[in-house]
Specification:
213 residues, Pnp Oxidase, Chain A, six-stranded antiparallel sheet, 5 helices, 10 strands
Length: 213
């Protein structure tokens, strides 16, 4: 991924935080010279492996899992909020439109998980992560064991030990402090919650590093 110096994020803290919050990501592999992509929910185990480990699963009918046998590196793309930025937000003119966004690319070699206990544990982690906000959380233990076993036969579980991470937070850091503030204010006034999310990220970035403008 092309990352200008002022947009590069190397600290694993904010990268992991983005991956956990926006955990529905895109898995990209190559099979027979052709790219394959599947959109999947992931669970990140931060402390497992040198740079964390991703847990996921896909339908057994999805042929992408067969590409894991090559031992080639896979890419998982996590994307946070993003927004169009109008040049009318800038003091410095002439200027052109752009797009602000935050993404993390995680790389690693996928390996299939076949032991049923580990598969079940992985699924339980995923369910628990997304159910905890409900007033009456649903748990896998509510299902009959035979039904769970049948459902598991229809999926392929896998894990990806992360070997490298790339973070790009493009939040107008190449502009003046005033331009950055004005962009954040314009996005904060939007009716679009996604654009307001970018405004929040820009404000946090300004608080951390206004001198980087």
């Amino acid at each position: 991924m092309y990352i200008p110096r002022h947009n590069r994020v190397e600290d694993e803290g904010p990268l992991f935080a983005l991956m956990e919050r926006f955990s529905f990501a895109t898995l990209v592999t190559v099979h027979d010279g052709a790219p394959l992509a599947t959109h999947l929910p992931f669970v990140l185990e931060r402390d497992r492996g040198a740079r964390g480990t991703l847990l996921g699963h896909m339908a057994r009918a999805n042929e992408q899992w067969r590409s894991f046998a090559s031992g080639a590196e896979a890419l998982v793309i996590f994307q946070a909020e993003h927004a169009y930025v109008s040049p009318t937000c800038y003091e410095d003119q002439p200027s052109v439109p752009t797009w602000n966004y935050m993404v993390v690319h995680a790389y690693g070699v996928p390996r299939i998980v076949e032991e049923s206990g580990r598969v079940t544990a992985s699924l339980r982690q995923l369910v628990d992560k997304h159910q905890r906000g409900f007033a009456e959380p649903w748990a896998m233990e509510m299902l009959p064991e035979a039904y769970v076993a049948k459902m598991i036969r229809g999926i392929v579980a896998f894990e990806i030990p992360i070997t490298r991470l790339e973070g790009k937070f493009k939040l107008s850091q190449n502009r003046s402090v005033e331009d950055r503030r004005q962009v954040a204010e314009a996005l904060a006034a939007s009716d679009d919650a996604v654009e307001r999310g970018v405004a929040d990220a820009m404000r946090r970035d300004l608080e951390r590093s206004p001198e980087d403008a």
